[in-house]
């Protein structure tokens, strides 16, 4: 099953290490995968942007490269798009997985984003 | 509102009918656009779907179309689609093309680093932890918090939040309030551990010893100063008094020094307003607690 990938640049703050967010984006660009990217997930959540709802719609697994999973989960909730972190998709895998660019390595994140 | 401008969506199209970009070129272009505040979707050969852009926003599609961009139309007629052929253009030139179109449309964009840009700083409530105690509602003088129809605490006016101030999260006894752009955990959303909970309990106890909540200190201070103000009320003296109150708050460690330094003291509520707002917030919180207790 194909998956949806969302990458957050966290462009309004310096809390995600530049080296990690650049390396993740660079490797994503090399991977050949299609993906969504946003300047700042907090900003889109604040605006309750409809695109976040679209992103989670459907059964495809969703992988989000951003920051702490607890923060991302409740940001989506704040945007009116709640999700359950334990939810599984039809294949028994996680429907939504949040990868933390503040803590995890770029290699670990890209592997999760692009694994089939 | 500060946060009404939705980011424009740019599609870097490398699907059927377009030539793929070099990976380094793709990275340079996408990172440049993101750093300027755009949302960017990469459509790869044989895959990807176009997401619905935010209402009334045009979709900007860029790609190496071999020298001439195709004309595209949204079958539903909802979205205006603009295409640009970027063959041979450096990322800066692509950005300039997109920016020109945006300027011609007079569409705003919240651009990181630009003067007047809104840093998305606001509290995010972890409802798995929140007990609806209303301490945050009582504490915040800027009306950031409110309740929904079920008397459940909500972030109602996130625009009112003071950038880089995590004070409400520090008074939350359950560590349920996050600021994702905060430097350290658990306020940034990191896992809450037992030590964090103990620390928060201690803070609340100290706050209670000081008179219930931190704003009571401001109120006491303003009460003490009231008679003096009435005799010699001048903007400078009022400002000094406010500054002294804020210094107390700073010393408490609840509001960071850099936040206080950036605050426009003259625009802050006056001691009288603080008193009134605190009383109103406390009444709203009590009302919400009573209603929630009545409903259960």
Structure in a nutshell:
The complex is a heterodimer of chains A (116) and B (296). Chain A is α/β, with parallel strands linked by helices. In chain A, 40% of the residues lie in helices and 16% in strands.
Total beta strands of chain A:
4
The domain count of chain B comes to 2
- Compute the average pLDDT of chain A: 91
- Looking across the biggest beta sheet of chain A, what order are the strands in? 2-1-3-4
* Mean pLDDT across all amino acids of chain B: 79
CA-based gyration radius of chain B: 25 Å
Unreliable runs of chain B, pLDDT <50, ≥5 residues? 205-212, 225-233
- Helix run count of chain A: 5
What can be said about the biggest beta sheet of chain A?
A: 4 strands, parallel
Question: What is the end-to-end distance of chain A?
Answer: 8 Å
Q: Please give the oligomerization state of what you see.
A: heterodimer
* Sheet/helix structural class of chain A: alpha/beta
Helices and strands in order:
The complex is a heterodimer of chains A (116) and B (296).
Chain A: E1 4-8, H1 18-31, E2 35-38, H2 41-46, H3 50-56, E3 62-66, H4 69-78, E4 96-100, H5 106-114
Parallel strand pairs in A: 1-2, 1-3, 3-4
Helix pairs in contact in A: 1-5
Chain B: E1 9-13, H1 23-35, E2 39-43, E3 59-63, E4 81-85, H2 91-105, E5 124-125, H3 135-139, E6 145-147, E7 153-155, H4 167-171, E8 177-178, H5 194-209, H6 214-231, H7 235-252, H8 257-262, H9 271-295
Parallel strand pairs in B: 1-2, 1-3, 3-4
Antiparallel strand pairs in B: 5-8, 6-7
Helix pairs in contact in B: 1-2, 6-7, 6-9
